[in-house]
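Input.
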Amino acid sequence: MSRVNPTPASRAKFDEGRLMKVLIAPIVSEKATHVADKTNAVTFKVLQDATKPEIKAAVELMFKVEVKGVSVVNTKGKTKRFGRSVGRRDNVRKAYVMLKPGQELNLNGEAA
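Output.
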């Protein structure tokens, strides 16, 4: 793929089966709720190898909303002790999905 004329993300086609697996779960925490109120962004846990265009396409496909942008954060898993044994938490990839003005995503499970 040439860097001079890359394919725009809007024209890129993704496998629909893959898009249904990209989003693992919404993250509902105090910080995620604060970010959602302040910047109209929703936070999701996503696959480790998911790209920003894939995440955008997956959210638009599953929730029928328009996405303004996607920011991704990779969090390394912590090492934790369980008595005498040492364990490790999984690495997590979070996606902050900013929605366009006027768009809303309801994750409460209530009918809108």
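The first strand starts at residue 23 and ends at 26.
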